[in-house]
Automatic annotation (TrEMBL):
<dbReference type="Pfam" id="PF13417">
    <property type="entry name" value="GST_N_3"/>
</dbReference>
<dbReference type="InterPro" id="IPR010987">
    <property type="entry name" value="Glutathione-S-Trfase_C-like"/>
</dbReference>
<dbReference type="Pfam" id="PF00043">
    <property type="entry name" value="GST_C"/>
</dbReference>
<feature type="domain" description="GST C-terminal">
    <location>
        <begin position="105"/>
        <end position="227"/>
    </location>
</feature>
<dbReference type="InterPro" id="IPR004046">
    <property type="entry name" value="GST_C"/>
</dbReference>
<dbReference type="InterPro" id="IPR036282">
    <property type="entry name" value="Glutathione-S-Trfase_C_sf"/>
</dbReference>
<dbReference type="InterPro" id="IPR036249">
    <property type="entry name" value="Thioredoxin-like_sf"/>
</dbReference>
<dbReference type="InterPro" id="IPR004045">
    <property type="entry name" value="Glutathione_S-Trfase_N"/>
</dbReference>
<dbReference type="InterPro" id="IPR040079">
    <property type="entry name" value="Glutathione_S-Trfase"/>
</dbReference>
<protein>
    <submittedName>
        <fullName>Glutathione S-transferase</fullName>
    </submittedName>
</protein>
<feature type="domain" description="GST N-terminal">
    <location>
        <begin position="1"/>
        <end position="88"/>
    </location>
</feature>
Length: 236
């Protein structure tokens, strides 16, 4: 079986590059150019996805003469971990329920808040400058009235959990941790008072100190300054 990963630098697909480094299995990496329109157009020429929309990450699973295309970061991560029998936690284990909750929570509850921050930021950027103050006001209002208070509740809960658990599933590093890293790292810049959450800072440092993580930054062409700028812009 062979794997081919379509990756967009500085995006959610960095998690799959990291996962491949943790699993230490061979794969082919296609890094798309950073211009999203061109990246999608070029990748679409060679990939046929189920829903006809090119997303990053997209994984091709090539087995003999058959190629299966898989999208959705959490589905790709679950598939690879089950296939390799690594980085998962059994439901019957002590931390099984935490693992089960957090692996679903990340993309279902935390990521949508950050994605909405980004949507409103992009509306500001694409509004003609004469009327831009209006869209800036909308963005400010939404951040103040909904997104930041919601994020605060979620970050506080995560912080509490990580005060008494080294990883999401206790002592076991799992693929739920790989899933959480991207939105948490984005929240560090997108949420105004992130530094108050000392357990989250400790947790991010521990995730980022892993040799496979460090290795994957180079492989995935990660640009820390660009990422920080992109997410800092979403603050009110
Ligand atoms: N829920 C999907 C979202 C994938 C996604 O939207 N990726 C972005 C990059 S972070 C993308 O491909 N954007 C192009 C587009 O939406 O057209 C996942 O987590 O894999």
């Amino acid at each position: 079986m062979q794997f081919k990963l379509y990756h967009l630098a500085n995006s959610r697909s960095q998690r799959i590059v990291w996962l491949f480094a943790e699993l230490d299995i061979p794969y082919e990496l296609i890094i798309s150019e950073t211009n999203l329109t061109n990246a999608k157009k070029n990748a679409k020429k060679v990939v046929s996805t189920k829903n006809n929309a090119m997303k990053f990450p997209t994984l091709e699973i090539i087995d003999k003469n058959t190629t299966i295309t898989l999208t959705e970061s959490s589905a790709i991560i679950e598939y690879l971990c089950q296939q390799q029998q690594k980085l998962g936690v059994n439901l019957a284990d002590e931390a099984g329920l935490d693992f089960c909750f957090y692996k679903h929570y990340v993309d279902a509850s935390l990521m949508p808040l950050l994605a909405l921050k980004q949507v409103f930021q992009q509306i500001v950027v694409h509004t003609p400058w004469l009327v831009r103050p209006m869209s800036q006001l909308y963005k400010f209002g939404l951040n103040r009235s909904y997104l930041d208070p919601e994020l605060k509740i979620q970050l506080k809960q995560l912080n509490r959990h990580l005060e008494s658990h080294h990883w999401l599933a206790g002592n076991t590093f799992s693929y739920a941790d790989i899933l959480l890293w991207f939105p948490l790292h984005a929240a560090k810049y997108a949420f105004p008072r992130f530094e108050q959450y000392s357990a989250l800072i400790r947790y991010l440092n521990d995730l980022e100190a892993r040799p496979a993580f460090q290795q994957s930054l180079k492989i995935g062409a990660w640009n820390a300054d660009q990422f920080q700028y992109y997410w800092s812009m979403t603050r009110a």
